[in-house]
Every structure is written in structure tokens, then in C-alpha cells.
Amino acid sequence: MSKIVDKAINAIQNLALEIQPINIKAAPDYIPESAAVLPLAATHITGGTGSADDATQARLLLNINCDIHIQRDNIAFAYKQTNSIIPDFLQRLAGDPTLDGTVQTIIFPVTVTVSPADYNGIVTQMISFTIPIKFLEEPIT
After folding, report:
1. What pTM, to 2 d.p., does this model score?
2. Which of 4, 3, 1, 24 shows the shortest CA–CA distance to 129?
3. How many domains does the chain have?
4. Cα 38 from Cα 96, distance rounded (Å)
5. Residues 132, 115, 126, CA angle at the centre, nearest 5°?
6. Which of these, 61, 45, 39, lies nearest to 119 by C-alpha position?
7. What CATH number corresponds to the domain at position 96?
8. For residue 11, what are the domain limits?
9. CB distance 117 to 126 below 8 Å
10. What digits encode the pLDDT tens for the residues 109-139?
11. Which of 2, 84, 97, 109 has its CA 20 to 30 A from that of 132?
């Protein structure tokens, strides 16, 4: 299951790299320690639930956050970038609801929040998308 989750995270990171007209410069598979290269996308699990429908199917519902960090030194420019990133990324998620076949589906709505953030000592503007996704798998017996 962890490989499937990693593939879903990679698919989200790939969608973040395609955002236009902003050039996301970094979207590594695992969250980096430094925000030295901005803008960057950091995607990670924030919670979820698991259940067994029956002895033949396990259901995993996860909230995966894609946090896009941009420079905050020019507030007007940061908000202009924010206004471009949000609709573009949401359209990309809607256009690929199975994340390249890695999940059953994204469970819409996707939520988004915008706030200043401290990324290991660097103040950024963070656009945080919470993406609920559904996995259906066979239980391990």
C-alpha cells in the first residue's frame, strides 16, 4: 500500500509542476528540509480513515495536502501568484481525478487555505490544498 500512496503523491507533485503561468521549481518525492528553491510544492499525508468493506476489499480514505510555498518578500506579487495558482491547480486535479490511475478517485471538494508559513526558518506564502483521495485494495490475509 505504501508504494501506491507514494505513486499518488508523485502524481500530485507532477500536477503541481505543470501549474501555469507560475513555474514551480521544485516538487521532490519527499519534502525537503530547505525552502531555498521557491516556488516549491511539498505533498504529504495529513490524516484519513481506513475500513474493510468485507473480507475482499479494504478502503483507505486519505487527506493528502499539497502545500505550495512561494516567496513572500513582495506581498502584492505573492497574492498575484496565489490568484493564478489556485484555479490552475484545481482544474488540473479535476482533469485527472484518478491521479494517473493511482487512486480510485479524488473525493471532491478539494479545500484550499492561504497563509504565511515558516518553512524551516524561511517565511513563505503557503497555498495548502487538502485533497481527499480513495483507495480500494484487497486485504492482506
Report:
1. 0.91
2. 24
3. 1
4. 25
5. 65
6. 39
7. 3.30.70.1700
8. 2-137
9. yes
10. 999 999 999 998 999 999 999 999 998 877 7
11. 84
